[in-house]
Amino acid sequence: MADAPTALVYDAAGKQTGELKLEATIFGIEPNVPVMHQVVTAQLAALRSGSAKVKTRSEVRGGGRKPWRQKGLGRARQGSIRSPQWRGGGVVHGPTPRDYSQRTPKKMRRLALYSALSTRAGEGNVKVVDRIDWEAPKTKSAVALLTGMGVDGKVTFVFAASDRVAARSVRNLPNVIVITPGQLNTYDVLWADTVVFTSDTIGMVGSSGFEVSGDDFVRDETGGEA
After folding, report:
1. Is the separation of the CB atoms in 9 and 17 below 8 Å?
2. Which tens digit of pLDDT belongs to each residue from 14-29?
3. How far apart are CA 111 and CA 157, in angstroms?
4. Mean per-residue pLDDT over the chain, rounded
């Protein structure tokens, strides 16, 4: 993307107040689709508990003696009723506990995140709320904000830790997640149709103290109260 993209700026009531020029090195790069795919795949793999477990023939209770003698009955020889071919027997090559996590270097996670942000910015789906000065948490205020911005579908809000009133206001809405700048990740950006920053958090992305999260899905489901 040659030109630096812009984001529309709104007030707490959802009224447009201007435009903000976004950082071209973060919101205006050429998206690297293979890297985004690899990082999202790693994030989804990290969600798997890997706790599936079945019992082998040595772990199934019973079957300590032969069901019948070796010869003389005209039947196939059997050593245990817990062999895999028996009902209730052990499982062959079944799942065992394992770790599905994949290694994703920090540079790869950063490139994937910036590619995802650039994709949404290029679509005009990165928006900024100038200042949220709601006195008390109200879902009605959050609905009015989204309606005023013309936002529909899935939304990722990026709030600072101090924006507790705003986080509480939006967290009960369907298809809305709330994260902090330190929890910003590729999956949550691509999952959402629109990414909404505040005037404070938009400047935190890519700043000197900004670090791409090394954890997978560290989002605070309680709306930023952790």
Report:
1. yes
2. 899 999 999 999 999 9
3. 21
4. 88
Over range 178-184, report the average pLDDT.
91
pLDDT (tens digit per residue) in 24-51:
999 999 999 999 999 999 999 999 999 9
What count of Cα atoms within 13 Å lies in the side-chain half-sphere of residue 168?
Answer: 11
Q: In angstroms, rounded to a whole number, what is the distance separating the alpha carbons of residues 199 and 129?
A: 6
Pairing between β-strand 126-129 and β-strand 16-21 as defined by DSSP bridges: unpaired
* Interatomic CA distance for residues 196 and 175, integer angstroms: 13
CA–CA gap between residue 185 and residue 218 (Å, rounded)? 9
Q: Is 164 helix (H, G, I), strand (E, B) or coil?
A: helix
- Please list, in sequence order, all residues whose beta carbon lies within 8 angstroms of the beta carbon of residue 116, skipping any fewer than 6 positions away: 31, 36, 186, 189, 190
72: left (phi over 0), alpha (psi -120 to 50) or beta: left
pTM for the whole thing? Answer: 0.80
Instruction: Extract the tokens encoding 27.
Output: 């919101």
Please tell me the distance from the alpha carbon of residue 41 to that of residue 131, in angstroms, as a whole number.
35
Going from N- to C-terminal start, the domains of the chain cover: 6-46+102-204, 54-94
Distance, in Å, from the CA atom of 83 to the CA atom of 66, rounded to the nearest integer, reads 11
CATH superfamily of the 6-46+102-204 domain: Ribosomal protein L4/L1 (3.40.1370.10)
Task: Tell me the pLDDT band of 209, cut-offs 50, 70 and 90.
Answer: low
